[in-house]
Structures are given as structure tokens and as C-alpha cells.
Amino acid sequence: MLPQRVAPIAGETLNSYLARIAQANHLTVTEVLAVLPTWFSTKTNNLDDRAQHHMLAPAATQALHELARLTGTTPAGLAHALPAFGTDEGPVRATTACHQCTARLGIRQPVPVHLPVHHKVCTRHGIWLSDLGEPHLDLSICPEITTAQHRANRLLRRFTPQQLTLAHQTAVETVPPWPDSPAAVPHHWRYRRLALQTHNHQRGIPTDLDAHAHASIYPDAIELAAAALAKHPHHPARSIGEDSPHLRTATPAGHGHFATQDSSPQVKATASGTAR
């Protein structure tokens, strides 16, 4: 067992975890790999942590227990946190762990993770978890975005991640470019985007990032997704969503397209005239 225990971060890549183990114990990654089964050397050469090659799968359980023994953690904890060991929670996306969560653990560098596609916000700290390579956004100026993540989490009690993902992608295409009612403007995504850009620019974050748009449209898209899921024949509408001005002002599919983090290339199209 290594003298310095290192807890894994949920969704963390294997390469990142091994690098943190090495750093904490003043070793190189090569030295850490030397005391682990060859499964790890092979696995770390594959950029897709979730790929389960038929030649590696039979040795995964032994590798898991060896890593748990070396790090002083539990196999169950490692298996739950590290996608490399085959935990399947539906579609995922590459991002970095909430920087405030990792800072509480004394970790200063970004931690690459694979999170479920529907996990957009760290609700503990109100942080938008942007796509890999983009800085996180502080959502304190727009708390309704964090509220939308809570709502998405509640929908997952009744629907699968795949259902929620599809409903969200579909909803993105029907979010109105501008609300019919002037009273709805302060809560509309264009107003929200400008607020996010201004607030985060004060933190040194550029205003032209896609993350601003993704975050600003999120509450509207989740609202529409909830309404669509409520119509599912196995889940009565009374158990899901409420009536909403946004739902009544939705435009037909094919209008007001907007790119999201989990959109396909065919869906990614930037709305014209967005706030800059």
C-alpha cells in the first residue's frame, strides 16, 4: 500500500487517477504502473476509458482489487468512480470535475472526467461544467440554471438517461428565439446569456464561449423536455411537469436551433443574432 491515499473523483479518467497517485507519493506514473498488473499499462494506452476490449475484460476484476489494495481504497468505491472498470451509466461526455469540489480535496489542477450527458451543473457550488477545454461558469447570477439541473435529476427517477438525453436534444430545437411576452424576457435565454457573459467576464472568462449559450438555454430546454416526457404513455403528465409560459411560446421543430454539449453535428447550429 502506498503511504499517501488518493481518493478517486467520480467519473475520473484512469490516466488522471494514476497521475495523481504518482504525484501524491512523489513517484512517476511508470513507477506506479510497475507495481500494478499489465492490465493498467494496456488500458492507459487506450484513450477511451469506457471501451471494454474482450481481451482485457476478464482481467478487470483482478486489476480492480490490485488497485484497491495499492491505494487503500475499496474495490466498490473505485468501480463506482472510475469508468475504466466498466460502470455503465448511459451516455457520457468529457469534461473536468467541478474545480470547487476538487479544491476542497486539495487538488489544484483540472481533473478530466467522463460524466453522464445529463450532468451539466455541480449543484453544490452552482458551477456549469463546460465541455472539455472550456472554463467552468459561475451560475450565481442565474440560479434558475442550477434549479433546472435539480429538475433533470428528478426526471431521472422516472425516466432513463437515454430518454432524458433524447428529450433534451429535441427540446433544444424548439426553444423560441424570443418570447412572445415581454414579461418573460428577464427569464429568457438571450437575457440569461448576456447576464452570464457579463458576470463571468469579470472572472477573466471570454464572452464568446459556447458554454455561455449552452448554459443559458438549459432551463428552457429542460422545461420543454419535461413536458415531452410527461406525454410518455407510461408516465402520466400529472407526475412530471407544470404549465409554463416557455412551453406555450415554443416554435415548431426546425426553428431556433441551438448548439448544446450533447448535440450531434447535424443539430449544432448557432442561432442568429445571439447576444455578444
UniProtKB/TrEMBL annotation:
<protein>
    <recommendedName>
        <fullName>TniQ domain-containing protein</fullName>
    </recommendedName>
</protein>
<dbReference type="InterPro" id="IPR009492">
    <property type="entry name" value="TniQ"/>
</dbReference>
<feature type="region of interest" description="Disordered">
    <location>
        <begin position="233"/>
        <end position="276"/>
    </location>
</feature>
<dbReference type="Pfam" id="PF06527">
    <property type="entry name" value="TniQ"/>
</dbReference>
<feature type="domain" description="TniQ">
    <location>
        <begin position="3"/>
        <end position="103"/>
    </location>
</feature>
<feature type="compositionally biased region" description="Polar residues">
    <location>
        <begin position="260"/>
        <end position="276"/>
    </location>
</feature>
